[in-house]
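Below is just one:
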Amino acid sequence: NWYDIHTHLLYAAPLKRQFVVDLEHTLVFARGGSIIPTRERQRRSSSLMKYDPFTLYIYMGRNGTAAGELYVDDGESFDYKDGAFIERELSFVDSRLTSRASPQTEDGPAQAAFLEKMKNVRVERLVIVGLRSPLGKAVVSENDMTREIELECHGSDFGRECIVRDPAVRISNDWDIVFS
């Protein structure tokens, strides 16, 4: 399945269809089962976005799961070669969104220094697209603390979308969000 990233409309695979486009709209699709991190704040350059929060777009696959990765480095140097980066594996399985450190992540002084610089960068929004059933609440677990957060859902079967505004989870931490 494929989702139009602008309208979140679902298109069944294989996608054999003609679309009318103009110069104001770019046709872009996300594969069902993908988690795509974005930074949504408008800036004059990407270097000014360094500490901006992330939005995670979760496009549900046919089996109700999704997976993706988040990679961040300073964008300016070769310090990533010494371990100065954040790489997270993201998964949505059984109504649980999880962020864990990638196996490629190596502990060391360069990574510790980078984590300290990026410690306040957070996920500011989750957009879950293509849910088959509505969600009522979400519970965040991060750093041995648990809290309930609000979400809003709209749409109908196979077109349901839920938005979580400011789950306030850090990109550098392990965390889980359980939906029910």
Observations:
- The first strand starts at residue 2 and ends at 4.
- DSSP finds one helix and 14 strands in the chain.
- The chain has a mean pLDDT of 92.
